[in-house]
Each structure stands twice: as C-alpha cells, then as structure tokens.
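[Discussion] Sanity-checking designs against the backbone

I'm trying to build intuition for which residues belong where. Below is a structure token string of 179 positions. I'd appreciate it if someone posts a full sequence so I can compare it with mine line by line.
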C-alpha cells in the first residue's frame, strides 16, 4: 500500500494527447520539482526523434530504450515524470514507477484525444489511415494498465491548469498521509 512505498516523485501516465507533458510542467513548477519527459530523454540520447527511432529501428527498440529510462528513474527524487503513452503497458515499468512515485493517470475519451492530436504528425502510432479507430483500439488495449494508477484524473472538461491543480492536490494528500 501507499504507506509502505517511498513516494518521492510524481509520474503522469495516460494515452497520447491527454496533456501529460503540459500538466507535468505546471505541476513541477508549482512543487519546485524537476520535470522530465521520458520521450525527450530517449530522443536526446539517441540523437533522433521518437518517430525516427520507430521508422529506422522499430517499436521494440524504442520500448527497450523506454524500459532503460524507467529503471534509471528509481534513483530520482523530487521529479515530475511525464511518460510516453505506451510505457505502462509493460508491467515491469508500472511496478518500477510505483516503487518511488505517485502514479497519476490522465484520462480522456477517444474522440477527445483525436480532436487534440489530429493536427500533429510526430506520433508514429497515429500515422494511420484511420487514426480514430487506432486510438479506440489502443486505448481499449491499454485501459487495464492505466487503471493500475493510484489516481485517475479526467481531463475532458477541465482546462490544463485545473487538471494540474487536481494532481498537485492528490500529491500533497499522499505526502501528508505517508509522513
Ligand atoms: C506512444 C506515445 C508517445 C511516444 C511514442 C509511442 C504510445 O508519447 O512515446 O510515440 O505508444 O502511446 P506521448 O504519449 O507523449 O505522445
């Protein structure tokens, strides 16, 4: 349970387009924590974009890189971690994150996600002829993993600042209880 865990960080999980990076930055600023985005760490190490890694090396290589970054996070403190949308689908990643972080899932419906990501082209998994169908399929597949989060926050009807406020509130609550 939470009391036996070492909650030193905050991890945001959830599907593409749920606002993990934007909310994560706001939360990190408010808590005076470091902000880290797993996709950015991977990109800066590989010297190429996520899209290029998918195209040139394939998804399994990207997932391995992701796995390596997650393991390194166990050494971090006072960090808000925004994760790639597919990262929680590996059980080992979720187990690892839960050891040191409060895991918060940002949620939105497939339609809302589509509305948010339709004008963007940097996500290889959505460069499909039927992106909405792909979102529905992947979201259904990943839902059981996302539901393993400590907290689920619906992002649909709220501006990002309000979502960030909810996340901060949940984090402070846990800090008080586990102190
Ligand atoms: C992915 C989500 C992306 C990125 C990669 C794969 C996924 O991150 O890691 O394109 O499998 O859902 P965001 O969720 O930050 O877009």
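Best answer:
Here's mine. Compare freely.
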């Amino acid at each position: 349970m939470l009391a036996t865990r070492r909650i030193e960080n905050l991890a945001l999980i959830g599907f593409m387009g749920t606002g993990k990076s934007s909310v994560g930055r706001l939360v990190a600023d408010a808590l005076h924590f470091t902000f880290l985005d797993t996709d950015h760490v991977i990109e800066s190490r590989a010297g190429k974009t996520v899209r290029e890694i998918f195209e040139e090396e394939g998804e399994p290589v990207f997932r391995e890189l992701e796995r390596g970054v997650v393991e390194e996070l166990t050494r971090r403190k006072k960090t808000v971690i925004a994760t790639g949308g597919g990262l929680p689908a590996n059980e080992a990643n979720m187990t690892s994150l839960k050891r040191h972080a409060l895991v918060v899932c940002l949620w939105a419906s497939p339609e809302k996600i589509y509305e948010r990501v339709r004008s963007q082209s940097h996500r290889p998994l959505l460069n499909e002829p039927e992106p909405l169908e792909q979102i529905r399929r992947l979201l259904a597949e990943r839902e059981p993993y996302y539901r393993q989060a400590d907290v689920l926050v619906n992002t649909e009807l709220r501006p990002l600042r309000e979502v960030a406020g909810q996340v901060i509130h949940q984090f402070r609550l846990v800090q008080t209880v586990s102190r």
